[in-house]
Design brief:
Strands 1-3-4-5-2 form a five-stranded antiparallel β-sheet, covered by helices on one side. The chain has 145 residues and is α+β, with helices and mostly antiparallel strands. Helix content is 23%, strand content 32%. The protein is elongated and about 60 Å long. The chain has one domain (8-140): Thiol Ester Dehydrase, Chain A.
């Protein structure tokens, strides 16, 4: 089933972005390690993680950045574009915890033919702590075109 397209006119400054909930598993971390080339053992080997004074295996920061990217691509739909996004890792997350990607619209404007919204976004762990933050610049279709 196709999701309804979001338009620039549908968004207001301060609007919340739809949450994206993730629950990464150790298996997913192993798959990410293999596909991304980040094979540092702290992401899939509990003993290695503990030897590095970590609470156990931890989620790759880049995977959390990818989760935020997915939230944005889901938002813009088939006819929008993620023009730019950033992420910054502020804390560690562990597999099995519920990670919720959240965000809000901080700016809305038109430049040339582009209808743009800017966003602030973050990931909250199961304790409500912000462990990853970021920003996004999105181009949405307009109902007036």
């Amino acid at each position: 089933m196709s999701k309804q397209q979001l338009y620039w006119e549908d968004i207001e400054i301060g609007s919340a972005l739809p949450d994206l909930v993730k629950k990464p598993t150790t298996r997913q971390l192993v798959q990410w390690a293999g596909s991304s080339g980040d094979l540092y053992e702290i992401h899939y080997d509990k003993d290695q993680a503990l030897a590095n004074k970590l609470p156990g295996v931890i989620v790759h920061g880049a995977l959390k950045g990818a989760f935020l990217g997915q939230m944005l691509t889901d938002l813009v739909g088939d006819h929008g574009t993620v023009k730019k996004y950033t992420s910054s890792y502020r804390g560690m997350d562990v597999p099995g915890d519920t990670l919720t990607c959240k965000g809000k619209v901080t700016k809305k404007y038109v430049t040339g033919n582009e209808h743009i919204i800017e966003t602030e976004m973050w990931i909250e762990n199961g304790k409500g702590e912000k462990t990853t933050t970021g920003t996004g610049i999105l181009v949405l279709p307009s109902k007036t075109k």
